[in-house]
Design brief:
CATH superfamily of the largest domain: P-loop containing nucleotide triphosphate hydrolases
Order of helices and strands: HEHHEEEHEHEHEHHHHHHHHH
Shape: elongated
Largest sheet: 5 strands, parallel
Structural class: alpha/beta
Mean pLDDT: 89
Number of strands: 7
Helix content: 40-55%
Number of helices: 15
Number of domains: 2
Distance between the termini: 50 Å
Radius of gyration: 24 Å
Strand content: 5-15%
Low-confidence stretches: 375-384
Amino acid sequence: MTDPAPEADRAPGAPHPRETAVLHGQGAAEAAFLAAFAAGRLHHAWLLTGPRGVGKATLAWRIARFLLATPENGGGTSLFGDPAPPPATLDVDPAHPVARRIRALAEPRLFLLRRPWDEDRKRHAAAIPVDAVRKMQGFLRLSAADGGRRAVIVDAAEEMTAEGANAILKQLEEPPRGVTFLLVSHQPARLLPTVRSRCRRLTLAPLAPADLAAALAAAGAPAADPAALAALSGGSAGEALRLIEGEGPALYARLVRFFAGSPRADRTEAIALAEAAARGAEAFDLTLYLAERFLARTARTGAGGAPLPEAAPGEAAVMARLAPDARAAQGWAGLAQTLAARARAGRAVNLDPAALVLDMLLRIDAAAAAPGRSLTSDDAPRAR
């Protein structure tokens, strides 16, 4: 028996959103949907937005499961024949036939639109092709066998090709009866304005440390320091899982210790960090992410933002020294943009990962000598 194909909408090291029974920290979004449902104002299309990894897909699957398992009259009737109160939660009994079929991807009234797996190339397609959207249109032309509701989940909506986006727009403009569209989007600005305008938006917020800790525990990855992990991950459970798997908190603490010596940081340690980042794509991406987080948090410190919980021992003191005022904050913010662009360009032409990381570290170190000025490609030190 061959292994099942990887799923494009499953975060590494985490259960799939359809298998996640509880959604942590997004009570406001759930309440907004339930209020519309109870008032009989159920919109035909919902756009679920917010940072990546905060529970948008989990909420989409919870809504779909709820809609397909709930009778058309909402809550049915009480023992005395009176209308039952509207549902107070999206919870569905895991033993419910709909819940079991959804976990097995065997629910005939649900259509999932996501990037397909290319078996020949052993990777996911770069986008959701228009052919997949056409299959969805075929699903919509068929009426449900029992006349009940149907649901379509698109994850992620901005991954549709232009042709696919235009195809789904036609369905949103003339929605079939009884169908609810649930569009998950990490970057809604990339969607067609006409697609956004046809949807009611539910915005999910970053998770607070306690909610993040609960989500990670449910995923089987308890956090040793939820506050620090929330600071590093931006309140994203998905990002936090990646950090835990790659030992991101320890690496970030090492970066903070390195920059504590700026503008005369240890070159030997810089080389060691760069070599460690070159051990694989995951290590490289993680190092770049954490360096960018350091710059962003340093800029925020100088700009006088709300006090940040420390993501590593001594971080607050290092950032306060490197960014004592708004001018320094502006310089760090500019450097962050410059280095992010250089990293993207380097990746595109397959430059040596170790050289890219070393160059980034040395530029940050040099900038500490004059934090109010963003270094250009001409006046920064070069990795040798």
